[in-house]
Design goal:
Helix content: 40-55%
Largest sheet: 3 strands, mixed
Strand content: 5-15%
Number of strands: 12
Shape: globular
CATH architecture of the largest domain: 3-Layer(aba) Sandwich
Structural class: mainly alpha
CATH superfamily of the largest domain: Collagenase (Catalytic Domain)
Radius of gyration: 26 Å
Amino acid sequence: MHPRRLLLAPLLLSIACEPRAQDPGSTTPVANTGPVGPAPVQRPTIVARDPVGATVVAALDTTVDPCTDFYRYACGGWIKKTTRPADKARYGRGFGELADRNNALLRKILEDAANAKSKPGSVDAQLGAFWGACMDEAAIDRAGITPLAPLLSQVTAVKDEASLMRVVGKLQSGYFGGNGPLFTFFIEPDAKRPDVYVAQMQQGGTGLPDRDFYLKTDPQSQALLGAYEQHVARMLGFLGETPEQAAAQAKQVIGFETELAKIALPRADLRDPDATYNLLGVTGLQGLDAATQWKPYFDALGYAKIGGDLNIATPTYFKQLGAVLRKTDVPTLQAYLRWHILRVGAPALSKEIVDADFKFTSVLTGAKELSPRWERCVNLANLGLGELVGQAFIKERFAGASKQVALEMIGSIEAAFEEGLPALAWMDPNTRTRAVEKMKALRNKIGYPDRWRDYGKLKLTRKDHLANVIAGRRFLFAHEADRISKAVDKDEWQMPPALVNAYYNPSVNEMVFPAGILQPPYFSADFPMAMNFGGIGMVMGHELTHGFDDQGRKFDGRGVLREWWDPSASAKFQERAQCVETLYGGIEVLPGVKLNGKLTLGENIADFGGIKAAYVGYKTWARGKTDPPLIQGLTSDQLFFLGFAQGWCSHETDESQRLRATIDPHSPPKERVNVPLAHFPGFWEAWQCQAGTPMRAQNACEVW
């Protein structure tokens, strides 16, 4: 998801597929089952020298040959010793344990704010009001379904298509924050005029996370759809419907959402920035289907003068949407709207509603318990009030030399990437020159914004949790929508400082690394630099490579979507990218569940490029410097690859793996470690992986 959308809703080797005659191993790292392969390398005993080294060693499983399965070698000890929390569908040494530590600090910050005697309107007063209301479960339970009543009452106004569109517009700006129903409405820089914000409209409106869940006919998909229908019926019962009425309305809702799914594009098709750029304006949108009632929608949305600054990402969807609406009866449309109002509001309502809502989440993800209330409140605060809570967070977790060390690392990684461009024989000189220019124009943001967002217009109360959630959505939506047609603020962050994540923004040509991820195990100013480069350095290289993956490469150094590649270089890139797509598309993560090579292509290219950029950047940094070995028996180069792999040590439910195989543009943790490394000569050399071992691919794909 684009970082801006995240905030509104409840981020070198030349690519070649030619076989290497000297590398007869398998294409993907899998266990050898045939004839005996090369004799394993005799490795020295590993002994930690200090507490940091001890944590690295504790995560290892030294009974596994690193040239057979590096993920299991690097993470096997952690996997054996760590139990996935019952409330987590996926839990890792990096994104799981680190998020836990960050959340514990955020909890203290919020509790302190709630207990402080603060000046009205101050940061502490706003945080304290949000936390106090969110944690007052007794008051939330007493309110029951009542807080939704004003929203639900709006649905009765739906009598025809015009009134439907009016209600949808009002709900999107005042409740949903642009994220449904029927479709999504959000604001981003114009892909071909990146200095200006434009409105964007895209397909959406379904309760399940992807169109495929409605359309697939296999038994598992049909069982999930059936469970979803039962869930909708169960939840509609809270609105006062009898079981019979709720069941009938649920069937209507599922039928309508299935019709929306039928006209929606596959998720992978939404990755093409050329196909999703259609600056039609309001007039062009109306021209897709002259009968569709758009004026009531924009009037109610509050942004009736959008004019030409409207991009329609999925025109085929909107061309057909009106016909779907016109063949649907009013009671079904009303039931659909009531369901989505309840669906979005449920996590902020009474315990019985929250628990009922979680029953389907458990079916979808495999999580067995609901996260504790304090953690849910922390997550809501971090996403909705990120730069308020982040101000205190960075004082505790991002002080001293951290920023300077991170900037030094980025400099080395960017230099390594740039220095590798002349070696790309498939890239013509003109394209290479423009690639260098894009590199030199790249902006970096580290830790936290230089200017904090002003939340002065956001009014919060200690008495009504749902009202605060709605106020936050409304505030963020207005903040975005008020900028339509205005100049892009290139200093603004689209991710909260305490979030464990990072992103590349092609429209601004920038990389952003929040303080939340600049923590162990990815980074510490006290770590050996080999670990830092393997951990956060790979993340830096990954985001850098996004500027040159199958999507990012289409934007120039100014963030303009245009063709700046020579046709021959573009064709050769496509050939090499196909190697990566085919490679991952053949990986089965569960019986009968394969990765989508097209959906994951950009992230996989970024993983391939990221590991090389980080490794070469480390080697460049290390020239003439001393990086004392942290662990006896491991070289600094080997520690680099462990620093990378151990950030991905994870447990995950089968249900979550199936879900992510459909919706997640990232490959699973094991594949994110093993596959790029099996295709990287620097790894083979560091670990002495012989030809014929699983971690030394025979037909190596190479990325950047």
